[in-house]
Amino acid sequence: MTTVRRFEVGDAPVVAEMIRRCLREVNSRDYSADIIDRMCAHFTAERIVELAAEREMFVASQDGVVGTVARDGNKVYTMFVLPETAGTGVGRLLMGHIETLAAADGHEFMETGSSISAHGFYQRLGYTDVRTTDTDFGLNYILRKPLR
Ligand SMILES: CC(C)(COP(=O)(O)OP(=O)(O)OC[C@H]1O[C@@H](n2cnc3c(N)ncnc32)[C@H](O)[C@@H]1OP(=O)(O)O)[C@@H](O)C(=O)NCCC(=O)NCCS
Questions:
Q1: 43, 89, 106, 119: which sits with the fewest CB atoms below 10 Å from its CB?
Q2: What pTM was estimated for this model as a whole?
Q3: Which residue minimizes the CA distance to atom 33 of ligand 1?
Q4: Low-confidence residues of the chain, pLDDT below 50?
Q5: Of 120, 117, 115, 34, residue with least CA distance to 77
Q6: What whole-number distance in Å separates Cα of residue 32 and Cα of residue 10?
Q7: What is the pLDDT, as a whole number, of residue 148?
Q8: Distance between Cα 81 and ligand 1 center (Å)
Q9: Would you state the pLDDT for residue 88?
């Protein structure tokens, strides 16, 4: 069974390692080695703790952490699922969790900045393209989904 709970500081090393594995094993198909190296250097356990203080961060847990996502109002951040657990519904579960919270707060739409690698995932969940943007971490798609 997969449960969703708030991120705790003690999760930071596991979450950081999961993100780095996603970057090296999944996102590396779509981004240069230079960008992947910079992103891996960015997502340290310390940085995760800082981000969790700025945003509402969640983890999906089975026997251990298998996914994470964060939101700031209606904005989605740091959506990552353990590579061996990908494709089993964890990402959809986490997104549903934060979409429900954002809708309850009265937001009319959810907005995400997606990697090339996750673009099809967000489209599958009902998100549509708004624009593309060039970030320090390469090309991102901005997508939105109505919440009502
Ligand atoms: C993208 C990611 C978050 C998706 O999480 P996931 O748990 O594998 O997704 P789910 O299993 O919940 O999939 C939900 C639906 O999206 C589809 N889907 C998942 N990843 C997809 C992809 N990359 N392209 C197209 N469709 C995808 C699934 O087939 C599923 O469809 P269905 O419910 O109709 O069968 C995950 O694969 C990941 O961490 N990728 C690497 C890191 C990354 O790029 N994160 C996003 C940063 S913006």
A1: 106
A2: 0.97
A3: 89
A4: none
A5: 115
A6: 31
A7: 84
A8: 8
A9: 98
